[in-house]
Amino acid sequence: MTAIAPAAPVRAKRVLPGFGLTMGVTLTYVGVIVLLPVIALVLKGAEIGPERFVQIITAPRTRAALQLTLVAATMATIFNALYGLLMAWVLVRYDFPGKRLLDALMDVPFALPTAVAGLALTALFAGNGWYGALLQPLGIEVVYTIWGVALAMSFTSIPFVVRSVQPVLEDLDPQYEEAAVTLGAHRWTIFYRVILPAILPAWLVGITLSFARSLGEFGAVVFIAGNLPMKTEIASLLAFIRLEEYDYNGAAAIALVLLFIALVLLVASNLLQARAMRYKGKGA
Amino acid sequence: MSLSIANMTRRFGQTEVLRGIDLDIGKGELVALLGPSGSGKTTLLRIIAGLDWPDAGSLAVDGQDWLGRTAQARRTGFVFQHYALFPHMKVRDNIAFGLTVLPRSQRPPSAQIEARVRELLHFLQIDALADRYPSELSGGQRQRVALGRALAISPRLLLLDEPFGALDAQVRRDLRRWLRGVHEASGTTTIFVTHDQEEAFELADRVVVMGAGRIEQIGHPDEIYDHPASAFVARFVGLTVELPVTMHQGRAEAPGIDLTALPRRAMADGPATLFLRPSDIAVRPDPEGCFRVAEIVSTGALLRLQLTGPDGCGIEAEMPRRRIAGLETGQPVLLRPEAGRIFPAAPRSDQPATPAPLPAFKEQRL
Prior knowledge:
CATH topology of the largest domain in chain B: Rossmann fold
CATH class of the largest domain in chain B: Alpha Beta
Number of helices of chain B: 10
Oligomer: heterodimer
Number of strands of chain A: 0
Distance between the termini of chain A: 49 Å
Number of domains of chain B: 2
Mean pLDDT of chain B: 83
CATH architecture of the domain at 72-226 and 260-283 in chain A: Orthogonal Bundle
Order of helices and strands of chain A: HHHHHHHHHHHHH
CATH topology of the domain at 72-226 and 260-283 in chain A: MetI-like fold
Radius of gyration of chain B: 25 Å
Shape of chain A: globular
GO cellular component, one term (chain A): plasma membrane
Structural class of chain A: mainly alpha
Main location (chain A): membrane
Shape of chain B: elongated
Low-confidence stretches of chain A: none
Structural class of chain B: alpha+beta
CATH class of the domain at 72-226 and 260-283 in chain A: Mainly Alpha
Subcellular location (chain A): Cell membrane
Membrane topology (chain A): Multi-pass membrane protein
Number of strands of chain B: 19
Mean pLDDT of chain A: 87
Radius of gyration of chain A: 24 Å
Strand content of chain B: 25-35%
Largest sheet of chain B: 6 strands, mixed
Number of helices of chain A: 13
Strand content of chain A: under 5%
Low-confidence stretches of chain B: 348-366
Distance between the termini of chain B: 63 Å
Family (chain A): Belongs to the binding-protein-dependent transport system permease family. CysTW subfamily.
Largest sheet of chain A: none
């Protein structure tokens, strides 16, 4: 009899076949669909040269567009952060008739084509619309102002906050609150010392996604904004206009700035999340 | 502090969880609420803590009504079964929580809070864990932190829900002894809930046995062990062998079983049920005996005998290994219970009625 060959090392069986295959498919996808366009954009931007780049960015029209986009996105995100948290809270903590319907309605902004959303909002808030007719006598103009831009951004990105906070809130064990109650903590204290830290990472994710989406929102905004250069023209529209004018460099430079802001935000948000989750321990 | 509960009921929808609880607990006592799951013991504990409210009845502490008070105002130390430590806080912050949430006017200065936390960490023998997060602790360590958090507010009443339920056997035994020490050192009145009778008996001054929303018996552990007040308690404290017997002039009689070792009971003649511990049954070889040894299983020091009766009913007996001499499988034996409890035979709805075992016994006897 021949000597028995040493047994092959026993490997844990995995559900999906082969780490190599699955990892390969994933990386290829990320490379082709996500990384390549971003790199192409950066390379295109690099062709412009720093001097021309600064020139494009600091042009009054570009600056106004970027400023409008950032301010409106910030306004929309602050609103979404608060309202989305409240909405998630109501959907998780209370039982009421129509709860499932409301829950389903939360997805409408995602399901609706953004152009449809933009049209609907414009129709509602225009001077002769249902809301506009009420607001105009008060001197509040929404359509063709920054308010309209923020409104459209907020509408299309609100589900991000609700949908990221909701599951975490649902999983939160009521025993933590009971423990806090027996230790003498009152409602508000329990909220900010026990509940908020638990949902903070998810909330941050929702806020970041909401802001990133607002920065790039196009379809809904262009209907309600009026798109007056220097006044209500958002950055992504300006990039689009530059492209139409065959000014590829101009379009790329604006796009790069938006990309940069989004990246910085993502990194910051991830750092904050890591900080908020540091208690989970290694491997937990 | 003393605690007094009277006529308390609680129902969840159709289910009656508490059906009239009367209970008095004295200052500094360590009391166990013992019962199977669904007996209402945890609900009672939660009502005392203010996490649940009864439908009727009263709860008074030191003569003051407590049902009108919020859980925050009661400030009981409550230790949850799964500890419910705040996962995002370090051990020291978890323990300090009850002090740091006090309104500014009542809150001790932070140096004082810190000192109190250090003192508790030392008392609980977990000094080294102060800066860990709960996820970095073992079950036993979490238990100690949970207790520390509850003790930090100097509660007059300490409530523990299945305090050792989630721990393994060795840690349980250590912590039990240690908890007894904590209770004595802190001087609080302590109530804990458990389904483990060994735990209740080892730890508590008084045990309250609960079943199906009622208190079945209250007493010192020995009292309950030796004199269970009802069939329910008997089953619960390990009298797991149930034999149908006939009472005759105060003595229990059953074919094939020598019941003369049991004391006379002032009970009317008629059918009754005898409750026995497997270890209280002496098994003797006897060619006349109508029980047979069906199986002998060793559990180490003890041997467990499965005995089959005349009508096919099975009885379990336990005996030390050295007393086994002469016993073999298939052998006819005589049973002589040395201790047991007799209760009038009551039809139990939750068990399938055995089809009239008594006539069968009699026939065999003739």
